[in-house]
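Hey, why these numbers?
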Amino acid sequence: MRTPLLILIAGPYRSGTDGDPARITANLERLEEASAPIFRLGHVPMIGEWVALPILRTLGPDQNAEESPDVMYETAHRLLQHCDAVLRLPGVSAGADKDVEIARERGLPVYFSIDEIPAA
């Protein structure tokens, strides 16, 4: 049996939504749909928004967005320092493309389908 991997699920979240909350929610649901199959393979799924959204909610109104890094991108970047692989879901997403780039720089496997992920 292989050691379980921490797999970052990367794909569109805000991309293509024009800021529409319903479309953003639908994108998050698509990301989350990949979590159960990864779990069933014996791994730990991770989505950057699961970590970043509570941070955004608790930063407060005093936070100057122009003077601080983009919390979503920065959270994913920090998470990738702990992840063992990335699952890149289809769809246009600069953030997900950056996740793939960072993963490849770190020598991590990048999967484009659940079927490519080996069982633990």
